[in-house]
C-alpha cells in the first residue's frame, strides 16, 4: 500500500496596520478570515476540512474554554480529528507534526491549523497581566517581570558562562530589522543600529527594549493534506520531512540549565534524524525570536553552532539579508509581528520562501527550511523541517 504523504498546501496571515487588525473584529473572526484565505490558497473549500488544530482563542473569555469545539462551531465544520495542544509559541510546529501523523494514518484528509489574537487592540481592557500560579512561587512574590525576567536570567547566565555580550544580542535585532525593511507587511521598518538597541531602555537587565518582541494583533492559518490531493489541485506541495517536540519546565526556576535549551536539542535532533539530512542542507531558518537571547540559545541547541558560540555565530550581520545564514526573513517577532504566540508565522514564512513568493526578501533557490518554535519561558520546543523535494 502506497504511503500517504502529508504536505502543506495553503497558508495565510492577517493583514495589519501599525500592529493592529484593519477593522474591529473578534478573535473568532480573525481565525475565520485567515482560515478562509489559507483554504483559498490551497484551492480547498471549507466543507472539506475534517481536521482542526488550534492552540487557544486569545481574547475569548470564559473558564474551561474548548477552543477546537468553539472554533469548529463558528466555522460550521464537523472535524473527525481535533487537537488543542497548547505548549505556547511552539504549539503550531507541534500541530504540523500531529496533523502529518493523522493524515498519513488516514484519520483526516484536510487539516486546518489556526491561531488568532487581538493582543494589542485589547490591551486597554486587559491590564491584569498573567494570572499567578502556584508553581511560580519562586518568581511572582519577588516581583520578577513575566515573561521577560526569565529570559533576562537566561541571557545573564549565558553572558557569565561564555562571555556573550549585549552587542552580540543586538546583532540579532538589527539583522531582523533589515529583513523587515524588505517586507511591506512588517510592523517596524525604520532603520536600526546596534547603538540604537543598546541605547533603548533596559527592561530587564541585560535585555533592552529593542531586544524584545513586539506586541501586536495577528492571525495565521496553515492547510495540510496529502501529496496526492495537492497534485490533483495543481498546488505546489511543501513536504513535512521531519519533526520533533519536547518540553522541560513551565517556570524559569525549574529550567534544567539557564544557558541551554534542552527541549530544542531534543526536538531538533529528532527532526534532523527523521528528515535524514544534515545542517548544511538547510537553505533558510525561521526560529522563534521572543527576545534576542531566544534566537542565540536556539541556534546553539539546534546544532548550527556549538554551545557558547552563538554570540560569535551571529556577529557581523551574518543572519541579515546578504549574510551567509538567512534567518527570520519576514522580520520575525522582533520587527514583523508578535501577537502572543508566534510559531504559526514561522511556518507561514517558511512555506512562502520555499514557494518563491517573498519578493525582495526571497532566498534564491530555497528548497529546504527549518522552523523552530519556542513556548513558555524557554519551556517548550518543536521543530519542523520542510522541503519542496
Automatic annotation (TrEMBL):
- Quote the protein name from its UniProt record: Thiolase
Superkingdom of source: Bacteria
In this protein, which residues make up the domain named Thiolase N-terminal? 7-227
Q: Name one GO molecular function term.
A: acetyl-CoA C-acyltransferase activity
**Domain Thiolase C-terminal, residue spans:** 244-388
